[in-house]
Amino acid sequence: MKLGFVGTGALSSAIVTGLKSLPGETTPVVISPRNEEIAAELAARYPDVRIAADNQAVLDQCDTVMLAVRPQIAHEVLRELRFRKDHHVVSLIATISREEIAGLVALAAQVGKALPMLMIARLQGATIICPPDPIVAVFFGRLGGVIEVEDQNEFDALSVVTATYASYFRYLDTIDDWVRGQGVADEKSRAYITSIYKALANAPDTAPDEDFMHLSQNYATRGGINEQMLRELTERGTFEAVTDSLRRVHRRITGQ
Ligand SMILES: NC(=O)c1ccc[n+]([C@@H]2O[C@H](COP(=O)([O-])OP(=O)(O)OC[C@H]3O[C@@H](n4cnc5c(N)ncnc54)[C@H](OP(=O)(O)O)[C@@H]3O)[C@@H](O)[C@H]2O)c1
């Protein structure tokens, strides 16, 4: 594979960093010159990473091209480029459908979408790809895992999960804030919460046959403090509010 990136920003940088952290990894990578600083840093860090003169030069020097510009400028950027029939195009542009991208990269026969997250730099967090594609699946599989989906509906529904990170940390912050308010030292509160939530994050892997509802029930010992908190949050409509927000984010993602 000769890999190219059109748009060298935060996400491209994270993918290249993850890729080049793999032992013995020598895939040649060509990146577009913008962002200048990020491109220069990647090229200085990795001998197999080169900066192309412009976006067209990226395409001319690669067979697999990842599109990683912001959605607002995607049409303008892609309209100027000449894709070859043998180009394997993977769009990382979150809010533009595969069909729309396929129309913009005419001639390229293979066009798919992928949704990696920035933690890919540390080889963490699976990438969703659509449609299933063995080459792209192997690529992202090595960088934190891959979930292959058949159609845009599945892709969009899974994408909504990525809207929940900030709320997750706000939840932890609420716990942390309260604990510190009781006079516990900052570092002890943070260390304890981090340690416990890391352990909880392992629970689905240690009990692969249990769904999340069962895991919740397992912890909600009858008459215990977990049951109390779950009941109180449920009675206040907390989880319905989460579902409502997921629905609204989904509508936004799908443009409905
Ligand atoms: N970040 C994420 O967590 C994430 C997750 C999933 C999907 N995505 C998608 O990935 C894409 C890139 O996101 P990002 O976070 O990497 O954004 P970003 O950091 O803003 O990177 C985009 C890069 O494109 C460059 N650029 C601007 N005009 C260009 C042009 N004409 N030709 C080539 N490059 C140009 C920008 O350079 P300048 O700085 O010089 O303007 C910028 O560095 C977006 O479409 C986003 O929807 C991002």
From TrEMBL:
Entry-linked Gene3D superfamilies: NAD(P)-binding Rossmann-like Domain
- Which InterPro entries would you find in this protein's record? NAD(P)-bd_dom_sf, P5C_Rdtase_cat_N, Pyrroline-COOH_reductase
Residue span(s) of domain Pyrroline-5-carboxylate reductase catalytic N-terminal = 2-94
Give the transmembrane ranges: none
**Domain of life of the organism in this record?**
Bacteria
Q: Which family does it belong to?
A: Belongs to the pyrroline-5-carboxylate reductase family.
Q: What is this protein called?
A: Pyrroline-5-carboxylate reductase
Which species is the source of this protein?
Answer: Mesorhizobium vachelliae
